[in-house]
Amino acid sequence: MYPSRFKYETPSTVEEAIGLLHDGGADAKILAGGQSLIPMMKLRFAAPGTIVDINNIPGLDYMRTESDGTFRVGALVRHVDLERATELKDSQPTIAAAAHLVADPIVRTRGTFVGSLCHADPQGDWASCMVALDGSVVAQGPKGRRTIGVDEFVKGPFTTVLAPDELAVEAVVPKAQGVRSGGYLKLERRIGDFATAGVAVAIERNGDVVSRAGIGLTGVGSRTINAEEAAAAVVGQPLTPDTIERAGDLAAAISDPRSDHRGSADYKRHIVATFVTRLLTSMQPTREQSTEERVA
Amino acid sequence: MTSLFEEVAPSEDDNIPVRRVEVRLNGERRAAKVEPRLLLAHLIRQGFQLTGTHTGCDTTNCGACTVLFDGEPVKSCTMLAVQAHGHEVTTVEGLATASELHPIQEGFKDEHGLQCGFCTPGMMLAAKALLDHNPNPTEDDVRWALSGNLCRCTGYQNIVKAVLWAAEKLRDADPGAAEGGDE
Fold first, then answer.
1. Are B144 and A105 inside 8 Å of each other by CB?
2. Which residues in chain A come in under a pLDDT of 50?
3. What ipTM does this complex have?
4. CB–CB of B75 and A106 under 8 A?
5. What is the 3-state secondary structure (H, E, C) of A14-58?
6. Which domains does chain A have, with CATH numbers?
7. How far apart are CA A244 and CA B70, in angstroms?
8. A182-227 pLDDT per residue, tens
């Protein structure tokens, strides 16, 4: 299989890329990792007239934590870069937990973090992580840059609020308000398959008290689900078995999965509740830890 | 010969320009003129006539078409040939020398790591990428690194053994390498 014909452009600056997008109009498409776009073009689900390949633009492959704790991921950071960045285990535990679960090891060498957000597949792992972390996408267009919260960025399945002449240049995770914990769990029939269900959790704590929480759900609706009420159930108090169970129930309730060959809707909701509970329980401080924190 | 390579060559009546692609393929400089929609797998197989790279599913699932792109494993059915311009590509033909099999190939031979052999080139290149990064892989590391490659004979057990065999042979040949890896 091969794609239908297109014009191929290789800009060397972001400005040039935006100019090409502007000229190409709605018929132009950015190529970053291409691990979703190229299969879709081969299957003729997508037939862009112009491909703007940004892989030759220098300076987009950065990932860095600012001095204030803000974490920035450039448009050409591949999944494997995040997987290999062992320092993220402490500073970005949700992202570190998801990095080795995205697609399969070979797809991860090409696919990009920002590209995955822009693809807006309800099955995308990164969008759930970014929802849990209250992250955003920085889009650059002819009129300059704007920052869009991930929840607002995704309009629906495979649809974002990006204008045709805007390029998503980076993703931003805000600094933590307290000590950050997080995790990601995904059930898949085999590696590389779409998720039966996935759950991203990020919490921030001052002492034992949860000051902020976010929960994002993968593959259980027509878009990434922000389980706000579930997250709110654990905020303002220490994690307890009761609040954790309530968060699990609320996350399952807001899920809107379809019954399919991966499992019934009830089964998927059950998985969501189990994963939320499992993740939050793993973040409960042990008795010794919480004493230490109080002493500190 | 009718091939995809020719099928997607430009026609007179359309204004899609062909592009010149220069790659270092198994250490050798090769060039071709291609239409942008030609896939890397097609360029390698039909264009350069290196048919060791197999296309299996053609939908980014099976990993049979895996090649090394600047040392990283990629699915060559999911990259455009034009994207390889200026880059290094290693296919299964680049593993052996004229006189000697690569230890990974020897491992597949010794441990019966192949049955029908269709997935083997992709498996071996994914294994090479693993051993380049991690000369001391555990069985789990090997299984994890090969999890993007499918074997429809389901011969995974011996494939894993073959890679562990190769890792040991490479360590014996170069004990210093076992200390670190590339990071």
1. yes
2. 291-296
3. 0.92
4. yes
5. HHHHHHHHHHHHHHEEEECCCCCHHHHHHCCCCCCCEEEEHHHCC
6. 7-56 (3.30.43.10), 63-173 (3.30.465.10), 179-285 (3.30.390.50)
7. 46
8. 999 999 999 999 999 999 999 999 999 999 999 999 999 999 999 9
B103-172: in CATH 1.10.150.120: yes
Cβ–Cβ of A38/B60 closer than 8 Å? yes
The SS3 assignment for B66 reads strand
SS3 content of chain B, % helix, strand, coil (to 5): 40, 15, 45
CATH number for the domain whose boundaries are B4-94:
3.10.20.30
Look-up: residue for tokens 């955003």?
A: A136
Residue A176 CA, chain-centre distance (Å), reads 17
What is the distance between the alpha carbons of residues A271 and A34, in angstroms, rounded to a whole number?
A: 31
Query: b/e string for B140-157 if b means 16 or more Cβ within 10 A?
Result: ebbebbbbbbbbeeebbe
Spell out the residues 6+ positions from residue A32 whose beta carbon is closer than 8 angstroms to its own: A54, A55, A75, A76, A112, A114, A115
Give buried/exposed letters for A154-182 (b at 16+ CB in 10 A, else e): beeebebebeebbbbbbbbbeebeeebbb
Strands B88-90 and B66-69, bridge-based pairing: antiparallel
pLDDT at B14: 59
- Interface check for B148 against chain A (CB to CB < 8 A): the answer is yes
Q: Which residues of B touch A107 (CB under 8 A)?
A: 60, 75, 78, 148
